[in-house]
Design goal:
single chain, alpha/beta, Rossmann fold, Helicase, Ruva Protein, domain 3, 5-stranded parallel beta sheet, 18 strands
Amino acid sequence: MNEKHVLVVDNENLVCWSLAKMLKRIGHATEIANTAAAARLNLNSFTPDLVILEAALPDADGLQLLTEFKSKKPGLPVVVMTSNFHSNLAFQAFSLGADDYIGKPFNIDMVERTVQKILVKQNQDNEINPEKKSLRKKYEPDQLVGNCPSMVDLFKTINTCAQNDCKTILVLGESGTGKELVTHAIHNQSARKGAPLIELNCASLPENLLENELFGHEKGAYTDAGSREVGIFEQAEGGTVFLDEIGDMPLKMQAKILKVIENRKFRRLGGQEDIETDVRIIAATNQNLIAMVKEGRFRGDLFYRLNMMSITLKPLRERKKCIPSMVEYFIDRLNGEYGRSVEGISSHALRFLMAHSWPGNVRELRNSLERAMMLEPGNILSTDNFCEFPGTEHLREGGGSCGCSLPAEATIVLPPEGISIEEVEKEYIKQALSRYDGNQTKAAKCLGLTLDTLRYRRKKFGLEKYPSKPSSISSPPVGKKDRGSSTALPG
């Protein structure tokens, strides 16, 4: 690969140094910018082929800078990087045109692979047609919220499906996990956004009406067919057809859908000619299709065609770390819907929500918050206005043992007055080093960090000579004694 120009925008000098060293090693020229102002100057003078951009800069919002860069140079790849992830940052970044997302602290080998992948693809695009680089459009963020790793991976998969125009996608997950939202996100991020997205619940219609709804009919096709009528596949031409509850589709109709997928053609009821169609088909179900194939209740050939690109949504009970950001998002959204001015949720109420298993998933969480907001007379949501959940009685305000029996996912709850993430991180590093008498390898393993990352953090926090003696601090300073939970390093 020829030498490329890479602009690194970050206010931490050590981050810039490590990235510049890696980029030089793989043969690329690098410029460093510690502020948005310096980055703007480098955009014109250095003419980068790739930008690695910190989302939180001292003089500007990194996402705003991302928008500026994409406006001035639409084909310029940008990788967003941050240690301060909040509710919907990754999805916002992708919606605004980011090519990838990196969390801090990062693995330098992973960053190298990301850079190489983007630059190789850029070379290939230029060789195919340097005059016609695709311009990614900007869309409003969809209602997909979360800050856990599985959600970041989901945002990336959605972006991949949309940008590569996958023709068939299978979305799996329990009811209420957001399969419809994923469908809208894929459609709205793709070049098909200008064409219709039409949804059909396969369980809501009998077989004869289902076929008519999908393919339409010719005049006289049956007794009441007084005129020609087009079906969903014609109405959605160039766009997306969403087949919800595909597991409930009759076997005979499954064969016809398979034919549409394979041949890109269909025939109206009573028609004599095939009609070509260009649509993306997204199918969704909460059923176990593999088991249904074995039982003969779902066609294996259709399953394997749909499963070419599969997205599985985790239930909310397996990603409870997303709940605080979801609560924040829904409060803000419901304030707009109901004209309320609720400012947030009490720490007791948040622990109350974290303790529930959420069998109805995100839909149940939203409905619970909607009910609480309609009943809440004040500006902070309390447990009083949430429905009673089994096993959470002791977590209501005034319940005596509130907060003492939290599930594993809620061992650290953000206090209402906030906390310094850097102080927490520094204290955890001190505890780990103290526990293992300064053995960096064991401390890094305990903290889930690479050895290089631990060394970088020690230097950042001035802990190179620590520990000189065992630490006597068991939890980071948080201002008030009662934070609802302990942040001591787990045993």
